[in-house]
Amino acid sequence: MRARVIRAYFWVSGQKPQIPGLSLYSEFRKGRRFVSITVQRATTNDLAILYQIERECFTIEAFGKEHLAFLLEDPNAVGLVAQMNGKVAGFIIGLIRSALDGTKVGHIYTLDVAIEHRRKGVGLRLLNDLERIFVEEGVDTCYLEARLDNVAARELYHKQGYVEVERLEHYYHRGVHGVRLRKVLKTSK
């Protein structure tokens, strides 16, 4: 499968860029330069850095290398890696499954952004790109889980149209609860 490379430029001075055809930007308070976020398909060749970021983002509930490899090798998986200035900034992995009624369902298993690259639009970019691929593949609904105490993640998902549909008691480990969220994706049916 040909790797998709998508670029977006973000103006860091707080002013919208004057580049024809550019619609994606994020405003930052500091700096005065363009920052490039490149998104491409993740492979098992990326496993070492993905695992490092996974461990940085999560503690007890972090996926192991074997689990990440299993997800990436699944033929129904969509894994994306975001890079900023040639350095991996984050990644997302989702799977596409067929529901009993014949519709396709997407499930996001992990969305991780390295601490040094947070609050720069990386997570949003990965989420939007994965959802776009899901729609291209005919996915109607997308699910994901988040820790109940992860307010930043839950706010991001709510802003993107996700709705909390179920509270998950002791989902991550004893005493650490989760919430399942769902979003109906816009398909071109």
Task: Spell out the blueprint of helices and strands.
Layout: E1 6-11, E2 34-41, H1 47-57, H2 65-73, E3 77-84, E4 87-98, E5 104-113, H3 122-136, E6 139-147, H4 151-159, E7 163-173, E8 176-184
Fold and architecture overview:
- The structure is a single chain.
- The protein has 189 residues and is an alpha+beta fold.
- It has a single domain, classed as Gcn5-related N-acetyltransferase (GNAT) (Aminopeptidase, 3-Layer(aba) Sandwich).
- Helices cover 23% and strands 39% of the residues.
- It has four helices and eight strands; from the N terminus they run E-E-H-H-E-E-E-H-E-H-E-E.
- It has helices spanning 47-57, 65-73, 122-136, 151-159, and strands spanning 6-11, 34-41, 77-84, 87-98, 104-113, 139-147, 163-173, 176-184.
- It has an eight-stranded mixed beta sheet with strand order 1-2-3-4-5-6-8-7, sandwiched between helices.
- The longest helix has 15 residues, at 122-136.
- The relative contact order is 0.13.
- Residues 1-30 have low confidence and may be disordered.
